[in-house]
Write a structure and sequence with these properties.
Number of helices of chain A: 27
Oligomer: heterodimer
Bound molecules: adenosine-5'-triphosphate, magnesium ion
CATH topology of the largest domain in chain B: Rossmann fold
CATH class of the largest domain in chain B: Alpha Beta
Helix content of chain A: 55-70%
Distance between the termini of chain A: 33 Å
Structural class of chain A: alpha+beta
Order of helices and strands of chain B: HHEEHEHEEHEEEHEEHEHHHEHEEE
Number of strands of chain B: 15
Distance between the termini of chain B: 46 Å
Number of strands of chain A: 23
CATH superfamily of the largest domain in chain B: P-loop containing nucleotide triphosphate hydrolases
Number of domains of chain B: 2
Radius of gyration of chain B: 23 Å
Strand content of chain A: 5-15%
Shape of chain A: elongated
Strand order of the largest sheet of chain B: 3-4-5-1-2-15-14-8-13-12-11
Strand content of chain B: 25-35%
CATH architecture of the largest domain in chain B: 3-Layer(aba) Sandwich
Largest sheet of chain A: 7 strands, mixed
Chain lengths: 982, 406
């Protein structure tokens, strides 16, 4: 490149600085937004990835509520692609903190896979030590050294705490866990206790779990695969490999789980075989007049004596103190014990026929006798508990016996009925926390593409107009150059360099702004959503170069197009100078109506028809700005409206009172308290359950059912409007959902995002194993961030065999003094927990909105800047182009004001058309943007937002006015005498 | 023989040969006066002659002066010119400041008078008028020798009249529309102040076709801009229908342009997005009593092309639309800056024909041109030189556009 060419290039830049600067800005904006938002998602992803790596996070998690045996685990580890595994326990747990119950998940600490990161304190070493979820600990003020006492026996888990040895724990650590990188408690999953959703995770040593509660098996297996090492879970390679492994695990699971269920069923059956005679004899004893408690006491005493003796004998034998297992003495003692039991009315035959010493000895040695005894003891505990409740009442005692009998048989029945119950294997892509990472990436990804392409298009437009203008202005000098023998390519080079420098500067500024501004803003809005603390910013040179190349190629293309028509001409033609604008007769001039239009209108129409670049540019600028504002505001307002709509049109309650199932008459007591407070309320059964969708996927849903038909259902429906979006015709009562219909009502997101249809059959599975299949009656509007399913009382009963048991009340406290009410609620016997659902859901929306709002603000600021630059640029260029016309008009007596009006009346028309297009586009983009940020369970308000539209109109109008004022000021400086020089 | 005598004989020779070569009386007088002025070193020279048939007053027939004398006149016996004529005796006010004459000061309002000579223009039969010389170009006073030379030269010139036919009737000037007095215009540029107009005096009369001529850069466009209300003089006065616009504000100037002035540009400057008729209507809407745009187009002979856009018209046609646009305002004056410069001969003639027609129908036109031939069409030709009016010629027989050849 020769020096003179360089000088010429810089002269060009100087002459068209506004355009040059605009191109830089648009490239920078496009690049900055595209990279910044993308990198923000990448920053979240890489930070998550780092956390997963640091915690040696599982690739797959296999759980089976009825336990995974040692053989299961061995079979899993033998599978292709499984390189590492670790067994663990997890279960639901609940505890009270300052009177209020909390539910969550308790897991065993692991040695290798899934290592927790300690933020404070030390990991538990002893069975009574516990590590607590940092998010939960910080929000409830739990500190290292605190003592947490787990609830004993909760309704959701009839087996109570039997899988934990200890109830009381000392908090030794505040931790994060790779399975829970999101700070949103919704990602903690579901719990069988409390409201059904887990609020936290806690970690204890594996030894603190009583494996026998899970049939000597573990509940979880965590596995890792080397073949997935080094890949991001969103990589296609990862997904493909992961799917293969998942398929093989599931295949194994379906056979092994069946075997396990059969085994458990037969175990249970044999247990029942042991147990039933007790119950028979207990019944006999009660009928004879012995109290059930006495019977149980005696039996337990006798059994424990027998087992002590057996234990002693076995110990002595093993110590070598006795060469024979059964000394005569011992045999006498055992048999005496058995006799005593028999005398107490116990049918000792349940222990087998041990009159034969050899058989007895064998049973003692292989432990089966002791086990049988301990099983009996465990089962008797339940009876003892019920006996205490029944007191002296004979009928109650008999009923208690009947309950125990029924419960056992129903467990077997359930187990038998669960034909398809299999392992639940989740890969990383189903991890709820990682799903929020994906969601963020998806949301930002959608936004960055729309926004960046908008800026790119506008940048191209600006570039095109700038280059066209330069070329037109230099038409004679181009002609001279051509005449002097310069080749077309040599002349073009100068313009390509012009745009190259603009793109170069733009990309550098954009990438810098992407890291330091966009990423900084978004990251600081996002980092509270995750547990990594402050996010490390992400930067990628490859991305920068790639987007830079795209910008350069497209801008070059527009440059070439802009100068092509001029450069292809012959020197002679060019030397004649620029051709004047060519207007020609238009189709509309033949219309009769045209003739009757005032000149004013005619000239506007003609101006607009003849100046396509300006019209197009202005429309893009104004419509783009309006659309961006409308879109941004729609996203923001609709997200917050969503919350409003939910608590205005759907939920008419604010709070939930969870009942303590262990307290008798909890429901009646609470109802009395609520009735006294004169607040609207409704009792209901509310549980989080697994929902198997027709496509085979499984998700969690909060299942709610009014506690009975009649008034409870009516109260339920007053507090929870089921606004049907689609339903089976016979499931409707007029336009309302008919809760007596034998079907399940699902929240709208399941239809919109999961493809569930009316009439499909879904399977719901409670964590305690009850499950059933049910037809989808229809869908209702629902906007909170979970799946919701509603069952009528009758439908529930016919499905689960029992009427829905109220475990909570929904209450509207908005018209009352909430603190006074909660005081009396807390004092009511049967209170478990109380929370203002509206407030907590509001907080969740607010935290989500802090993210969308940031994006929205960036959006708005940029759109204003963009529109300002485009419009100013266009207007200035337009006024410069029209300078001659304007001066001629002013010479002829147009006042300054007339001359300005000549320009701005076109602009008014353009602005109006642009705004109308922009509002339409904005409504469409708003709708699509909201759809694009809806993820899994999200269902936001989709309707166009009037305020957003008005804001778009207002901001574009103001912007257009400002731009016009600035641009029109140029006319003040026009000198009429310049007419001689043009 | 001294130097002055030499000049004197030389001049006489020149005048003789010039008169011999002249076709018409006008030409002879113009040429002689030019020679006289060159040799007498006079800054201003005027030939006054008696309108015998008309008002019996002395009218300026031809002059070289930055002052527009067109409508000045003297009665015989009155003032320096009148007495010179009546007495057939030259008047020598060599040191004018010592013996000032009010009528001269009035006639040459705008210049500072130092020295005046007025000699009778007498042929064999009668006194036709006189020749007045004002100020020497070099700033000195006239000497008696100068006066002698002038007398002789006037005699020579009178002989020319004698040998040719009668002197023409004076040109009937209309009312003064516009008066320009002592207008200067300076521009500030990088190297300092450039004086472009250095004191221009001119009157524009109703219904005349005035052509401004002068070498490039002498300030014609600058002057036109000022009288068009597009620019303002640095000093001097510019009145239009007795209203002074030299210090008018922008609004007044806009109003002035809107009501009074029609413009025709070299490069047509039509609104490209409006068709011919719309271009006219746009301007017509500015004034209270516009000419019907259709009629205006008919005048310029473009009724057929009403709906054509500028890009669909030839240069000549565009210029005709541009003339129609100027007409449509019904302006008091039409200003045209080199309207034919961009056109070829044939089209120029077309356009000039239209202009001729327009003037003949009563319009006043001030036109700048480089084309000497076009001056033949004008009523008056104002020649500018170096930022001043150098001479103003009244064309008593304006040619028709169709007669022009170049
Ligand atoms: N705005 C200005 N600033 C500085 N100088 C100017 C300006 N306008 C005109 N001039 C100078 O004034 C002088 C007269 O210009 P003007 O355009 O009046 O000439 P002209 O007689 O119309 O010439 P031409 O016949 O070439 O059109 C020129 O020397 C020009 O450079
Ligand atoms: Mg000029």
């Amino acid at each position: 490149m020769k020096k003179t060419q360089l000088i010429e290039l810089f002269c060009n830049i100087k002459a068209t600085f506004v355009s040059f600067f605009s191109i830089i800005m648009f490239v920078a904006l496009g690049v900055g937004i595209f990279l910044g938002l993308g990198w923000s998602a990448d920053a979240v992803r890489t930070n998550a990835e780092a956390a997963l790596k640091q915690g040696n996070f599982e690739h797959f998690n296999i759980t089976f509520p009825v336990g995974l045996t040692q053989e299961d685990v061995e079979a899993i580890s033998a599978l292709d692609g499984i390189d590492d595994f670790e067994m663990g326990f997890s279960s639901s747990v609940s505890f009270h903190l300052r009177n209020t119950g909390h539910s969550g998940i308790i897991r065993s600490l692991t040695k290798n896979i899934n290592q927790a990161q300690v933020l404070e304190g030390k990991l538990p070493k002893a069975a009574n030590e516990i590590a607590v979820d940092s998010v939960f600990a910080y929000s409830y003020g739990i500190k290292v050294g605190d003592t947490l006492v787990m609830d004993h026996d909760s309704a959701a888990d009839p087996d109570g705490m039997q899988y934990l040895y200890t109830e009381s724990y000392e908090v030794t650590a505040i931790v994060t866990h790779p399975a829970y990188v999101s700070s949103d408690s919704i990602t903690r999953g579901i719990s069988t206790t409390g409201s059904g959703s887990a609020e936290f995770f806690m970690l204890i040593i594996p030894e603190a779990f009583d494996a026998s509660a899970f049939g000597d098996a573990c509940t979880d297996v965590y596995v890792r695969s080397n073949s997935l090492e080094g890949y991001d879970w969103t990589d296609q390679t990862y997904i493909d490999t992961s799917e293969k492994i998942l398929a093989s695990i599931n295949k194994l699971g379906s056979t092994r789980s069946q075997a396990r269920i059969e085994e458990l069923t037969s175990q249970l059956q044999s247990l029942m075989d042991i147990y039933n005679p007790y119950l028979d004899s207990a019944q006999k004893a009660v009928e004879k007049g012995t109290s059930l408690s006495t019977y149980v006491d005696l039996t337990q005493k006798a059994l424990s004596e027998v087992s002590t003796n057996i234990q002693n004998a076995v110990d002595a034998y093993e110590d070598g103190r006795s060469s024979r297992l059964l000394s005569t003495d011992m045999r006498v003692k055992i048999q005496a014990g058995l006799l005593a039991a028999k005398e107490a009315g116990i049918d000792t035959s349940v222990l087998g026929d041990y009159s034969n010493p050899d058989k007895l000895e064998e049973a003692m040695l292989d432990g089966s006798l002791l086990k049988a005894l301990s099983t009996c003891d465990t089962q008797l505990n339940k009876l003892a508990y019920l006996a205490q409740e029944a007191g002296d009442n004979k009928d109650a005692q008999l009923a208690a016996i009947k309950t125990v009998r029924q419960e056992a048989t129903s467990t077997i029945d359930t187990l038998k009925s669960v034909e398809n119950l299999s392992w639940t294997t989740t890969g990383r892509s189903q991890n709820l926390s990682l799903l929020t990472v994906d969601a963020f990436k998806q949301v930002t990804g959608n936004l960055r593409f729309t926004m960046a392409s908008l800026f790119l298009i506008v940048g191209l437009l600006v570039c095109y107009t700038a280059i066209s203008r330069i070329v037109r202005e230099q038409i004679t000098s181009i002609g001279t150059k051509k005449a002097l023998g310069l080749r077309r390519s040599e002349i073009t080079l100068s313009y390509l360099l012009y745009s190259f420098f603009a793109v170069l500067a733009g990309v550098i500024i954009g990438a810098t702004a992407g890291v330091w501004i966009v990423e900084f803003i978004t990251n600081s809005a996002v980092d509270s959503s995750f547990v990594f603390g402050q996010l490390d910013p992400y930067f990628s040179l490859t991305d920068t170069l790639a987007i830079g190349a795209v910008e350069l190629i497209t801008i070059w293309a527009s440059t070439l197009i802009a100068c092509y028509s001029v450069l292809k001409k012959h020197a002679v033609q060019l030397l004649k100078g620029p051709e004047p604008p060519k207007a020609k007769a238009r189709f509309y001039e033949k219309w009769a109506i045209w003739q009757r239009l005032p000149l004013y209108t005619q000239s506007i129409v003609n101006n607009l028809f003849n100046d396509k670049v300006r019209v197009f540019g202005s429309l893009v600028g104004i419509a783009g700005c309006t659309a961006l504002v409308v879109t941004a505001m729609t996203i923001d307002l609709n997200v917050s409206d969503t919350f409003t709509v939910q608590y205005r049109d759907i939920y008419h309650y604010t709070s939930i009172v969870q009942l303590d199932p262990d307290v008798k008459d909890a429901q009646e007591n609470m109802e009395a308290t609520l009735a006294a407070a004169n607040v609207p309320y409704a009792p209901m059964m509310r549980k989080t359950m697994g929902l198997y969708l027709p496509d085979g996927s499984v998700t969690a849903a909060t299942v709610e059912a009014p506690s009975a038909a009649g008034k409870p259902t009516d109260d339920f429906l007053t507090l929870f409007s089921l606004n049907v979006t689609e339903a089976a015709p016979d499931a409707l009562n007029g336009t309302n959902a008919d809760l007596s219909y034998e079907g399940i009502w699902l929240s709208e997101a399941l239809r919109a995002h999961q493809g569930v249809k009316v009439g499909d059959t879904v399977r719901i599975v409670s964590l305690t194993g009850e499950q059933c299949e049910i037809k989808v009656a229809g869908f209702f509007e629902y906007h909170l961030k979970d799946n919701k399913a509603v069952l009528g009382a009758a439908a529930y009963e016919s499905l689960f065999g029992t009427a829905p048991q109220a475990n909570c009340f929904v209450v509207d406290v908005s018209q009352t003094d909430e603190s006074a009410l909660t005081k009396s609620i807390v004092k009511t016997s049967g209170y478990y927990s109380y929370w203002n659902d509206k407030t907590s859901q509001g907080a969740r929306f607010a935290s989500y909105q802090s993210l969308t709002r940031t994006v929205v603000l960036v959006y708005l600021a940029l759109s204003a800047l963009m529109a300002f630059l485009v419009l100013l640029n266009l207007n200035v260029m337009f006024i410069e182009e029209k300078k001659r016309d304007l001066i001629v008009l002013m010479i002829n007596g147009f006042s300054l004001r007339d001359a300005k009006r000549y320009i701005y009346r076109d602009n008014i028309v353009l602005t109006i058309i642009g705004i109308i297009l922009g509002v339409l586009l904005g409504m469409l983009m708003g709708y699509l943007s909201i759809l694009s940020i809806e993820f899994s369970t999200d269902s936001y308000v989709h309707s166009p937002n009037l305020i957003a539209c008005l804001a778009g109109v207002a901001s574009s109008t103001i912007l257009a006015i400002i731009v016009n004022i600035i641009a029109l000021r140029r006319i003040d400086k026009f000198r009429l005498t310049d007419i001689n020089k043009m | 023989m001294d130097r002055s005598m030499l000049t004197y004989y030389k001049t006489i020779g020149e005048i003789q040969s010039c008169i011999a070569a002249s076709q018409t009386l006008d030409e002879a007088l113009h040429a002689s006066l030019k020679i006289i002025v060159e040799n007498s070193q006079a800054a201003n020279a005027v030939i006054w002659y008696l309108d015998k048939k008309g008002d019996k007053k002395l009218h300026p027939y031809y002059w070289i002066s930055p002052i527009d004398l067109t409508s000045k006149k003297y009665s015989p016996g009155v003032g320096v010119v009148g007495t010179t004529f009546a007495n057939e005796q030259s008047t020598r006010l060599l040191d004018f400041k010592a013996t000032p004459a009010e009528d001269v000061i009035h006639t040459f309002e705008g210049i500072d008078i130092d020295s005046v000579i007025c000699v009778p223009l007498t042929n064999a039969h009668e006194t036709l008028g006189c020749i007045e010389f004002v100020n020497r170009a070099d700033g000195n006073l006239f000497t008696d020798e100068d006066a002698d030379v002038c007398e002789i030269m006037a005699m020579m010139a009178a002989m020319a009249i004698d040998e040719n036919e009668q002197i023409q009737d004076p040109w009937e000037a209309g009312n003064v529309l516009m008066t320009i007095r002592g207008i200067t215009r300076e521009f500030q540029n990088a190297s300092g102040v450039v004086k472009v107009l250095k004191g221009v005096n001119l009157d524009v009369y109703d219904g005349e076709f005035l052509v401004l001529l002068g070498e490039s850069g002498c300030g014609k466009s600058t002057l036109l801009n000022i009288i068009g209300g597009m620019d303002q003089p640095t000093s001097g006065t510019f009145t239009f229908l007795n209203k002074d616009y030299s210090t008018a504000n922008q609004n007044e100037l806009t109003e002035f342009r809107r009501k009074n002035i029609g413009f025709i540009f070299q490069s047509y400057n039509l609104m490209p997005n409006l068709n011919a008729l719309q271009n006219l209507r746009l301007i017509a809407e500015l004034v209270e009593t516009p000419l019907d745009p259709d009629l205006a187009l008919e005048i310029v002979g473009l009724s057929e092309r009403k709906t054509s856009y500028p890009s669909q018209l030839s240069g000549g046609q565009q210029q005709r639309v541009s003339i129609a646009r100027a007409l449509v305002k019904n302006p008091k004056i039409i200003l045209a800056d080199e309207p034919t410069a961009a056109l070829d001969y044939a089209t120029s003639i077309e356009v000039l024909q239209v202009l001729e027609k327009v003037v003949s129908e009563g319009a006043t036109m001030v036109m700048v041109t480089h084309n000497e031939e076009i001056t033949r069409m004008a009523n008056r030709v104002v020649r500018m030189r170096n930022g001043k009016v150098y001479e103003i010629t009244v064309n008593r027989h304006p040619a028709h556009a169709t007669d022009l050849v170049w």
